[in-house]
Fold:
Amino acid sequence: MIEKPFHQPPSPIPHPLSFIDTHCHMEMKEFDSDREEVIKRAREAGVEVMITIGSDLEGTLEGLKLAELHDFIYCAVGIHPHEAKDFSDQTYSLLKELAQKKKVIAIGETGLDYHYDHSPGICRELSSGSSLNWRMSQVCRLSFIAAKQMKTP
Structure:
């Protein structure tokens, strides 16, 4: 028998095989008719923790409400690059404020996404080889700054 090189405390997770859903969108309208049933089935299947990810301001707020209703659901607050057209200084301030909430564990959904053109002109500008569009790059940069300031991933 091989000895473990360090003491491993017992897992706080009761199931021998359990899961964490690190990127669900349980706040989306598609779940309005059966959200609680979906959450129940996930729990029965061994999902111990769910992290719902805000992709726009409305989704971020709804995700936070959902997280506050369930002790095993957490959320990430953010603006997806597709929604860069709606990003403002007020949005940034609100996201930083929301990031202080107990059930918020990360900043997201954020980054650079050039596949779709949901923020008109951004993808065309990027694919044409010109410099990064200010708005999309600003959303990404400010999200990273907020995450660092809030000490969250």
